[in-house]
Each structure stands twice: as structure tokens, then as C-alpha cells.
């Protein structure tokens, strides 16, 4: 998609500055390498100045709190660690394993045609008055399908709107807003959760604030479901009340009819059969995991972690019994996507034997080539940040500074949402941004009483809303081509202007949701509260 042709830049003002400045930025991989160089220099300066902070949870043998001092990354120990532990630093980067495992299954579901057929089936027969919300909902859920949401649903939405006598660009806008503006909204965790919580876990581990904290990729489930419920009427309102009336009645033109191919054709009998088989496979995996969880031996529940009598005394949290279940969800999504994709492919004829299945899994790994390079750079940045102790020191001093201002928790999270949205205009990769921000933000917010799950939730709100207005977004040229199929003179400025109302209202809605969630005190997911209490200090 990076090679897709683009219209000549037409942006002016702030968006023009964003486009011009962002295009001058190096690739995110090299951003990490440059930051590592800067980090080495900063660590030397902080080490020479004796920069330090008191660890909030560790107590030394003398009974006094442990003082954490800045460590020079050019020390003998760190130089040796860098070269000797390089393979381990890379392969032990938490997001890497999570993403690779989930994508092995998701790659089969995508390449077998399951995702594309499911999205087409979901939106083709929607009533005209419900066409916008159905497209928006399927777009948000379609984020599990990765690229398929962009390359299948968005052009299909234009076709369906045109067939219904509506402006096709309004359909493209609604689908783009759902897939990209509602990037984190969904009804269930998926690949993105595995990616983000892997980075969150690395940040918590590096801070040494809570050695017992375990990443739970379902830790934002309720929150992303809330985003879906809120974003759906927002996209519906903006599309039908603000965008489509401005577009006016579609007068024809463009060459969409000649270029969109089979996107508007009904599903074949084999594809329908494949969807039925995939549904049975999904139900079978769910039942299997219920058996693993609630069978007499309860393999996915560790009843010894917090026995009933200890829990009754208030000496442990009963939710810790569920840690094996939460940790198993990565494998669960791998099996679910794999089983559903295989079942669909076998029935639809896209998977003829086990070699086809293996080839699809291998192709999915090929698509992750760039991510592996990015993960290598990010893993070493995060690791070296932790070796220098600058992450924890910055978190402690940052938390103290924020506490002195008296900012309430909701306001603090709103500021993080806005900051993330601004950064997103320049660095589009969700993993790159979170790898940069998490080593400081996660421990700092833990010190302020906000859980790692809460920090992750606030980040993903800001990461979503501005996706659809930055020309640096990787799919922006592709969406522009989809629009030009219907209106040849539709330029980059036209696309940005069309998507700005979505971005504004999604940001307002996301901020309101974050503020409300903190105020009400609802859990973000099973076993995941917004608030957090540091473990008791121990030697």
C-alpha cells in the first residue's frame, strides 16, 4: 500500500505544517535508533550529576527505602549486556510473542477469505436507514481483520451507498471513520490488545514497581465495548447530518463501476457455507475454553493463588486465581482465528489441504517483516531505558510534580489522551508510539493510583481519533484512491476536510468516555480496575 499513488498535497495552515513536518521525520525504526543514541548521552549526564529517586516500593536491609540512581549506558556492565544479551533482549520483548502467536491464526482467517466474506455478509443486506450504523459497526469490529478492514470494507461501503441512492463518498467516510477513527473500539479483544498490553507489561516489568503484575489482554474489554457503543452513534450522526448533506446528491462520474470488480457481488453458496462452518468452529473454541476454565481440575484457574479463607481475611485478591485464564487468551485468539479460518477455507474451497494452511500461516509471518524490524529497535530502546533507571526516575519525579499541582485523575487522563492524539499526527504506528511513551507514562500513572490497564485505555483513545486526519497515516493514499474512483478531482485536502468532523467528535466522545469511566469507577475489563494501589514496600 505504501506504493499507491497520491494526489498532490493541498494542505495549508496547521495540517499543511503537519504534512510537511511529518514527511521529514525518519522511519520509526530509525527514530528508535536515534533515541537510543540520545538516551546514551542523557544517561551519562544524569549519572555524572547523580540524578536519583527513592523507590516507592522497595526497602533495603537497613529498613530505609531503596534509592534508585541513574546508570550510565556506557558502563562496562551495560556494554556487555547490550552485546551479550542482544538475542534475549529481542526475543523476550513481550509484544513480539503475543503478536506473532495471534497473527499465526489471524493470517489464516484473512487469507482464507473469512474476514472479507464476513464483512460483506454483514453489510450487504442492511436496510437503507440502518446502512450507516451497520457499516460503522462492522468497520470497528473489522479491526480484528487488520488490512481487510481497509482494503475490503471501505470500497465496499462506497458501492453499497451508491446502490442505495446515497453518496458513495459518505459510505467511504463512514467506513474509514469506523476502521481507523474507531481503531481501538471493538466488542472483544484481539491483535491490538496483544500488541499494546505486551508493551505495557514490558513497562511495568522494567519499573520493578509491581513484580506480580501480569498482562491481561482482556484488561480493556469493557472500555473498548463502551467506545463501540459511544462511537457508533457519533459516526452515524456525523455521516448522515454533517458529511452527506455537504456532499450533495451524487451525480455520477469516475470509473468505480469498472474498477471495483466483484465487491458488490452476492456471496456464493460456498462462501455462505464457509461462514456457517466458521461459526461452528468459533462456538467449538469457546466451549473448549469454558471446559478448560470450569472443568473439575480447573486448569485455567489457579485456586491456590488466593484461597477462599485467605481472600475472606482480605489478604489477597481473588481475581489472582484467574491469572492463568487471562494469560491463556493470547492462545485462545490464535486457536479461534485458526479454527474459524480453516473451517471457512475448507468449506469455501480456499484451503484444499494442510499445505495451503501452512502456506497461509507462513505468509502471515512474511507480512510481519517490518514489524519484526521495528520490534528489534523498540525492544532495545525499552531495555536500555530500563537499564539506565531513567524511566523509573522520570516516573517518580513526574508523579510528584503532578501531585503538587493537585490535578484530579480524570483531568490527568484527558491530558494524556490529547497528548497522544497530537503525537499520532506525526508517528502513525500504534506500537511505536506506545513503546516510546509507556516506559514513563505507565509507572508514573501507577504511582498516581492509575492502573497499567487505565494508562493503556487512555493511550488508545488518543491513538484512534486523529488517525483519519493525518496524511502520514499509512492507508491515507489508499483511501484517497477509493474516493477518486467516484470523484476524480477528489484530493488530499478534500479527504482531510471530510474526515475532520469525525476526528473532532470522536476525540470529544473519547475524552468524555474516559472522564465518565473514572468518575463512575467501572472496571476496564475482567479483573482490571482503573485505579491501582502499589504493593506494600518490601526489602
Summarize the structure in words:
By secondary structure, the chain is mostly helical. Helix content is 67%, strand content 2%. It has helices spanning 13-24, 28-49, 76-84, 86-91, 94-111, 114-124, 131-141, 147-163, 168-181, 191-207, 221-247, 256-259, 269-294, 308-312, 323-348, 354-367, 369-388, 390-405, 409-424, 430-447, 452-465, 476-484, 492-520, and strands at 52-59, 65-69. A two-stranded antiparallel sheet has the order 1-2. Mean pLDDT is 84; it is low at 1-11 and 257-261. Keywords: Membrane, Transmembrane, Transmembrane helix. GO terms for molecular function: secondary active p-aminobenzoyl-glutamate transmembrane transporter activity. It holds the Pfam family ABG_transport. This is Membrane protein.
Task: Reconstruct the topology from this structure.
Elements: H1 13-24, H2 28-49, E1 52-59, E2 65-69, H3 76-84, H4 86-91, H5 94-111, H6 114-124, H7 131-141, H8 147-163, H9 168-181, H10 191-207, H11 221-247, H12 256-259, H13 269-294, H14 308-312, H15 323-348, H16 354-367, H17 369-388, H18 390-405, H19 409-424, H20 430-447, H21 452-465, H22 476-484, H23 492-520
Antiparallel strand pairs: 1-2
Helix pairs in contact: 2-17, 5-10, 5-15, 5-16, 6-8, 7-8, 7-9, 7-11, 8-9, 8-22, 9-11, 10-17, 10-20, 11-23, 13-15, 17-20, 18-20, 19-21, 19-23, 20-21, 21-23
